[in-house]
């Protein structure tokens, strides 16, 4: 996913959102390194990475809605104003998500020992990105690592309507809806647990609720920023304290605090946009790392077998060196796929779309 977190009315970049996105990607790498690659980070980090997965994915979806609103709020999707329609939004999101996702789907046929009949039967579902609707497909094919793309595609499909609703609300109305959705995000897992329903982890409706929570939070924070009622030093303190509390609760598995993790995540994101640092806002390495997180997520599907083979061949025994092998391999894979596959395809499609629009203009002027 392209990292799009520039301000609505300025070219300022919210670097803290880049840092949050990178942190989420590294945390998921840490979890998968243990469960899929059988690597270790030492006791403290093993426990932390293992326990934080749920909170990290919650943060990921809230962050997705948050950053999408911040980068698109100036557009009138349903009215077609400001040069961007809902169709243009869909095209842009599909262009950012689908090339690498389709590569992963094709690659899975050759990488994994999967049933050809199952693969062919599920391909239409996978191509459309609706596999998260079928809860039982989580452990089939590559869906254990790509379910979040399905949830994002569904969220993006609804987003233009969501944005227009949000923009029509008053500030107090936004706050009311924010607290209602936040309540539901915290309350629904209790209902799910009490009635022993299907797991919510890859549920597209529940993930859309988190996505919508992020979007409305983005609207509230941008309106607050426009009022110029913010203190960068205070914001740094609040973000730091909430992050420490979240990490301690995750490590100690303090259920009473973990259940309210969405509140801590919302507070962190809300105050993040009030933190300024000119160097980090312009830092191209940070921006590139943030953009690379999408490939970093997906390509883990193909990482653990070859990285384990390399580690065994090298005869490494120290866990720090063992972990560096899959990390470096994944980083190189992500860069290569982005630069040699994803970006050329995106550029070709954009060039083709531009030529089609130009031809239409010429035809209409004849």
List the uncertain runs: none
| Structural class category | mainly alpha
Total of helices: 15
**What's the count of strands?**
0
> β content, as a range?
under 5%
Measured between the Cα atoms of the first and last residue, the distance is 40 Å
Rounded average pLDDT: 92
> What Rg, in angstroms, do the CA atoms define?
21 Å
Task: Describe what you observe in this structure.
With 366 residues, the protein is an all-alpha fold. The chain is built from 15 helices and no strands. The model has no long low-confidence stretch (mean pLDDT 92). The chain starts with 14 loop residues before the first helix and ends with a helix. The longest helix has 47 residues. 35% of the residues are buried. α3 packs across α8, α4 crosses α15 and α6 crosses α8.
Secondary-structure map:
Elements (H helix, E strand, L loop, with lengths): L14 H21 L7 H9 L1 H20 L13 H26 L4 H13 L14 H26 L2 H24 L9 H23 L5 H20 L3 H4 L2 H12 L5 H4 L2 H15 L5 H11 L4 H47 L1
Helix pairs in contact: 1-2, 1-3, 1-13, 3-8, 3-11, 4-6, 4-15, 6-8, 7-8, 8-11, 9-11, 13-15, 14-15
Record keyword descriptors for this entry.
366 residues, 15 helices, mainly alpha
Nutshell version of this structure?
This protein has 366 residues and is mainly alpha-helical. The protein has helices spanning 15-35, 43-51, 53-72, 86-111, 116-128, 143-168, 171-194, 204-226, 232-251, 255-258, 261-272, 278-281, 284-298, 304-314, 319-365.
């Amino acid at each position: 996913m392209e990292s799009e977190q520039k301000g609505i009315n300025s070219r300022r970049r919210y670097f803290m959102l880049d840092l949050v996105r990178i942190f989420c990607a590294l945390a998921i790498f840490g979890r998968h390194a243990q469960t899929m690659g059988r690597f270790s980070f030492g006791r403290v980090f093993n426990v932390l990475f293992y326990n934080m997965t749920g909170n990290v994915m919650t943060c990921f979806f809230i962050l997705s809605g948050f950053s999408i609103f911040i980068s698109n709020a100036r557009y009138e999707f349903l009215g077609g104003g400001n040069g961007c329609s809902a169709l243009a939004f869909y095209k842009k999101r599909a262009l950012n998500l689908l090339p690498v996702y389709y590569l992963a789907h094709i690659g899975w046929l050759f990488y994994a020992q999967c049933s050809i009949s199952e693969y062919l039967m599920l391909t239409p579902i996978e191509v459309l990105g609706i596999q998260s609707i079928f809860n039982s497909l989580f452990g089939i094919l590559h869906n254990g690592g790509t379910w979040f793309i399905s949830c994002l595609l569904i969220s993006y499909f609804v987003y233009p309507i969501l944005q227009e609703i949000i923009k029509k609300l008053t500030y107090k109305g936004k706050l009311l809806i924010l607290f209602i959705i936040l309540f539901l995000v915290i309350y629904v897992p209790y209902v799910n647990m009490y009635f022993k329903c299907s797991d919510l982890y890859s549920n597209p409706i529940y993930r859309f609720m988190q996505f919508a929570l992020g979007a409305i939070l983005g609207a509230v924070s941008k309106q607050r920023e426009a009022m110029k009622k913010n203190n960068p030093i205070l914001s740094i303190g609040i973000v730091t304290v909430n992050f420490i509390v979240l990490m301690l609760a995750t490590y100690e598995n303090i259920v009473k605090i973990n259940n309210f993790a969405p509140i801590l995540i919302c507070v962190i994101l809300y105050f993040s946009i009030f933190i300024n640092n000119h160097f980090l806002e312009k830092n191209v390495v940070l921006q590139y790392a943030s953009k690379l997180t999408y490939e970093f997520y997906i390509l883990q599907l193909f990482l653990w077998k070859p990285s384990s083979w390399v580690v065994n061949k090298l005869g490494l025994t120290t866990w720090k060196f063992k972990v560096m092998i899959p990390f470096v391999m994944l980083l190189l894979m992500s860069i290569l796929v982005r630069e040699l596959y994803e970006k050329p395809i995106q550029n070709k499609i954009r060039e083709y779309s531009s030529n089609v629009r130009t031809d239409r203009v010429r035809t209409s002027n004849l």
